[in-house]
């Protein structure tokens, strides 16, 4: 049997067409049968969409029961009209499910600055609520209903046994452009049946987002609507996780990270116009923070992205990006490797360029999966990130995005 977010105990959902987008599902709801611990990481863009503001307010108590999301309109830069529209989303779904509007997480994705289609979305919510289901197809409908420029739906599911209890975590995500999360347009919604303290859920989510969604980039733009939200309803029946030292907390965090990395990689692989999936790894660093900063500096570099697109083994661009990371960096201690998913070639050894076959390297860089590995030789910590190349197709697509 197919397992997805609906395999999480007590979770029902649905996705349907409300009329905002032409001939495509554009409205989704995730509902927990019981109130749940909740947490979210939200965009750090200073221009924030109206649903972000409502979600931030509603999650002050780290409790929620519903996530509602529309696609096709970001409800950003929409002023009072947009604010009322986002509030109407929360109010309508709350009334339909007989819960408090304060227990609703609201999200939107789509064009910025367009008048929010409140009437269509509200009517869509009223239509969807009676259809909420725990069937696997409902999870697939949900995953498809949050897409914008994506070319495929992004789903994931993990489960594990703990003291005779089966604990499930399921999630969906969307994003292919404007991907540069800082917690693109990037959304991810996750549900689990683990029984866990709200504070610890929030801590686990932040830890995992830092090492998954915050380690991907497509184009360097952080959206006005970025959100990763999680519900944990406790229906697995495990003894409640109350302490960070509890072994179950660490097991849950490990499995949550596994799921989020899976979803993050799917987003990168669907990057607008992308022809390559690039894995960046920085190892033997003094700290994980340093390693993460260097990964982000390299993967964010437009010159590095274009070199990957052009199959150009121009390692100088990678080293230059490290020098712009805002941290101490010595290329004279570093080893740098380039290659595909199976073969790596040493191009820089402790600051000294190596002799390598450029034609062979170009052959490796022609593959759809590329690796860039940097060893700092200053410590034992490491970090991994993922990105895409920057292609002419990306430029063409985004030059006519609204037309």
TrEMBL record:
This is Arginine biosynthesis bifunctional protein ArgJ. The keyword Acyltransferase applies. It is found in: Cytoplasm. It comes from Negadavirga shengliensis. The record marks 184-185 as: Cleavage. NCBIfam families: ArgJ, PRK05388.1. The active site is at residue 185. The record marks 109-110 as: Involved in the stabilization of negative charge on the oxyanion by the formation of the oxyanion hole. Catalyzes two activities which are involved in the cyclic version of arginine biosynthesis: the synthesis of N-acetylglutamate from glutamate and acetyl-CoA as the acetyl donor, and of ornithine by transacetylation between N(2)-acetylornithine and glutamate. Heterotetramer of two alpha and two beta chains. One of its GO terms (molecular function) is L-glutamate N-acetyltransferase activity, acting on acetyl-L-ornithine as donor. Substrate binds at residues 148, 174, 185, 272, 398, 403. Its EC number is 2.3.1.35, 2.3.1.1. It catalyses: L-glutamate + acetyl-CoA = N-acetyl-L-glutamate + CoA + H(+); N(2)-acetyl-L-ornithine + L-glutamate = N-acetyl-L-glutamate + L-ornithine. Keywords: Acyltransferase, Amino-acid biosynthesis, Arginine biosynthesis, Autocatalytic cleavage, Cytoplasm, Multifunctional enzyme, Transferase. Belongs to the ArgJ family. Its main location: cytoplasm. The keyword Nucleotide-binding does not apply. Pathway: Amino-acid biosynthesis; L-arginine biosynthesis; L-ornithine and N-acetyl-L-glutamate from L-glutamate and N(2)-acetyl-L-ornithine (cyclic): step 1/1; Amino-acid biosynthesis; L-arginine biosynthesis; N(2)-acetyl-L-ornithine from L-glutamate: step 1/4.
């Amino acid at each position: 049997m197919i397992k997805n977010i609906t395999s999480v105990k007590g979770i029902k959902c649905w996705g349907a067409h409300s009329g905002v987008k032409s001939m495509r599902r554009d409205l989704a709801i995730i509902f927990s049968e019981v109130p749940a611990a909740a947490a979210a990481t939200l965009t750090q863009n200073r221009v924030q969409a109206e649903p972000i503001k409502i979600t931030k307010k509603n999650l002050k108590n780290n409790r929620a029961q519903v996530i509602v999301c529309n696609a096709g309109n970001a409800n950003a830069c929409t002023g009072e009209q947009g604010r009322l529209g986002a509030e109407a989303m929360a109010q309508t779904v709350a009334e339909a499910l007989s819960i408090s509007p304060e227990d609703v997480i609201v999200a939107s994705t789509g064009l910025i600055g367009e008048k929010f289609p409140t009437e269509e979305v509200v009517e869509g919510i009223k239509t969807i609520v009676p259809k909420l289901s725990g069937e696997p197809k409902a999870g697939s409908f949900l995953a498809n209903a949050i897409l914008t420029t994506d070319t495929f739906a992004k789903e994931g599911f993990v489960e594990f046994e703990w003291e005779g209890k089966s604990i499930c975590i399921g999630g969906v995500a969307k994003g292919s452009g404007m991907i540069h999360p800082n917690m693109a347009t990037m959304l991810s919604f996750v549900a689990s049946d683990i029984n866990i303290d709200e504070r610890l859920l929030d801590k686990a989510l932040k830890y995992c987002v830092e090492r998954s969604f915050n380690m991907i980039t497509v184009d360097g733009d952080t959206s006005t609507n970025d959100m990763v939200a999680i519900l944990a309803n406790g229906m697995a029946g495990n003894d409640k996780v109350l302490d960070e030292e509890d072994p179950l907390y660490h097991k849950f965090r490990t499995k949550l990270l596994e799921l989020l990395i899976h979803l993050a990689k799917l987003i990168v692989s669907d990057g607008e116009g992308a022809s390559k999936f690039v894995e960046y790894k920085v190892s033997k660093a003094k700290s994980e923070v340093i390693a993460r900063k260097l990964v982000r500096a390299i993967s964010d570099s437009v010159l590095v992205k274009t070199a990957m697109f052009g199959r150009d083994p121009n390692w100088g661009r990678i080293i230059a990006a490290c020098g712009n990371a805002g941290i101490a960096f010595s290329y004279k201690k570093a080893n740098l490797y380039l290659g595909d998913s199976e073969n790596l070639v040493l191009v820089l050894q402790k600051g000294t360029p190596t002799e390598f076959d450029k034609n062979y390297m170009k052959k490796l860089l022609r593959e759809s999966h590329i690796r860039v590995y940097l060893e700092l030789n200053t410590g034992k910590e490491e970090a991994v990130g993922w990105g895409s190349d920057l292609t002419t197709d990306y430029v063409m697509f985004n030059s006519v995005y609204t037309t």
